[in-house]
Amino acid sequence: MYELGVVYRNIRRADSDLVAKLGAFGTATVHEAMGRMGLMKPYMRPIHAGAQAAGTAVTVLLQPGDNWMLHVVAEQIRPGDIVVAAVTADCTDGYFGDLLATSFKARGAQGLVIDAGVRDVRVLTEMKFPVWSKAISAKGTVKATLGSVNIPVVCAGALVSPGDVIVADDDGVMVVPATLAQKTLDAAAAREANEGEKRAKLAAGVLGLDMYNMREPLQKAGLKYID
Asked: I want to staple 188 with a disulfide (CB 3.0 to 4.6 A). Which of 4, 25, 65, 195 is the partner?
C-alpha cells in the first residue's frame, strides 16, 4: 500500500556527473547495460519528437483526476531533477499544462514523466520543456485529494525511488536505481565501445551475417539459398 499525505523533503540524489554521463548514452544503451531492466512501458511517449532529458527523480503520487500534488511537488524540485508522477488508478486526464511547466522550469526541473495525460502541448513544445506521458488530453483535473511526494512509486510498470536516475528520449524512459548508477555507467561505456567497432565494420561493408558468425547456424536451421 502507498503511504498517503506525506512529503519527504530530504532525499539522497544520485551523483549529477553520473546522471549526465548516463543521459549521453540514451535509453537503449542504458537499458541493455542494466541487464534489460528498468524500462517503463512503451506507451510512455514524448509529447514532441527529439525530446531528451536526464535527471534525478522527484516522485509524486497522484489521485485519479486530481493534480493537487503536482503543485506540492514543485516546492521539492531542485535543479537537475525530473518529476516522476504515478497515479493510484488508471487515468488519462490532462494533469499538467504550461502553467505548471513554467513553475517546474523555474525550479530547475529537466522534465516530467507522468503515467497519465497532459495538455497545452503546443505551448510546452515552444517552451522546450520535455514531457513523457501516457496520453494527451484537454480534460482538466480538480484539486481535492492528497497523494504523496518522494515515496517509492510504480510508474508505467517501473519502480522509481526518489533520487534514482531517469534517462528519457524518443525511445522511452529508463529508471536506473541510484545504487546501480556507477555499475550501469561502466557497462554502458563498454557496450558503446563495442558497438563502435561493429559500426565501423558494417560501414566498411562487412555483413552482420559474417560479423556475428550466423551462416553456419542458419544452415543448420535449414535456410536455403535458391538462384
From this structure: 25
First to last CA, the chain: 64
Q: Does position 70 have pLDDT exceeding 90, yes or no? A: yes
78 in Cβ contact with 11 (< 8 Å):
no
∠ CA 163-167-169, rounded to 5°:
150
| pLDDT tens-digit readout, 188-212 | 999 988 878 888 999 999 999 999 9
Q: How far apart are CA 212 and CA 219, in angstroms?
A: 14
Asked if 112 and 131 touch (Cβ cutoff 8 Å), the reply is yes
Predicted TM-score (pTM) of the model is 0.92
